[in-house]
Design a protein that fits this description.
By secondary structure, this protein is an alpha/beta fold. The chain has 11 helices and 8 strands. It has an 8-stranded mixed sheet, with helices on both faces. Strand 3 and strand 4 form a beta hairpin. The radius of gyration is 17 Å and the shape is globular. Bound molecules: adenosine-5'-triphosphate (ATP) and magnesium ion. The site of adenosine-5'-triphosphate has 17 residues, from helix 3, strand 7 and strand 8.
Length: about 230
């Protein structure tokens, strides 16, 4: 759990940055239910899983009941992030081999439950677009305050777009120096095309006065403007 600064160094500027993002999300929650949130980026390695895990921990610390669901069925990593096993997980539930209670890791951090990938499937996109996963996520809504889904990169496969259709909001992580503005803009457009509610962009790995681990959160402009009008 080395990368979970919200846990390891709760008083650090990084943990504080996550609390700021958390507040922005909570604030967006006023008008419309914002419970299931997916986190994606344009390409691999921009920091999706790191950002998603830190945010989830940050909410769990508020005494919210939080669930992380591994949504990257091609390159799952949530189990490594939290040092837990990945023997049983989401795919086993979708294939009706196990039930949720048999797969979920409870209180990995107080109030934080985790559902890892399980066996890597041969048909991830089909699994992620199935009716079964939609009704499963709907059922989970009744049991958690927040559900974070770690999605694959939106610029590489269609999975993140599919996931966004059953989530209430999407966060786009941009790895500073790893993607250019055009690529980030294309990813935003891809998500918008499938009707995703983009909550904002997290600029990750931004070098700020010698600190390489600095996070910024930019709320989607149109949302900020429409809120101001109210
Ligand atoms: N803010 C940061 N500062 C420095 N290193 C970071 C930061 N965020 C993530 N990293 C590092 O970048 C690498 C990729 O992070 P992570 O696994 O979270 O990315 P990802 O987008 O989920 O990758 P993948 O596409 O493979 O799922 C890791 O080695 C992680 O430690
Ligand atoms: Mg990842």
């Amino acid at each position: 759990m080395d990368r979970i600064m919200s846990l390891r160094k709760p008083k650090s500027p990084i943990a504080e940055a996550y609390r700021l993002i958390r507040s922005s999300i909570e604030f967006s929650n006023v008008d419309k239910e914002l419970k299931v949130i997916c986190v994606t980026s344009s390409i691999q390695n921009e920091g999706k899983s790191t950002v998603m895990s830190n945010l989830a921990v940050s909410f769990a610390k508020l005494d919210k009941k939080v669930l992380i669901v591994e949504g990257d069925l091609r390159n799952p990593s949530v189990h490594r992030m939290f040092n837990i096993s990945n023997i049983n997980g989401l795919t086993d539930i979708l294939l009706e081999k196990k039930n949720f209670t048999e797969c979920v890791h409870c209180n990995v951090v107080e109030n934080l439950h985790i559902l890892t990938c399980g066996k890597i499937p041969i048909n991830p996109s089909e699994m992620l677009s199935s009716k079964k996963i939609r009704s499963f996520i709907d059922e989970l809504r009744e049991h958690y305050d927040y559900i974070f889904i770690d999605a694959p990169p939106v610029g590489i496969v269609s999975d993140a777009g599919i996931i966004s259709t059953y989530t209430d909001g999407c966060i786009l992580v941009v790895g500073s120096g790893e993607v250019d503005v055009e690529m980030a803009r294309l990813s935003k457009e891809r998500l918008e095309k499938v009707g995703a509610n983009i909550l904002g962009v997290v600029l990750n790995k931004f070098e700020h006065k010698g600190n390489t681990e600095y996070y910024s959160y930019y709320e989607d402009d149109s949302k900020r403007r429409s809120r101001r009008k109210k």
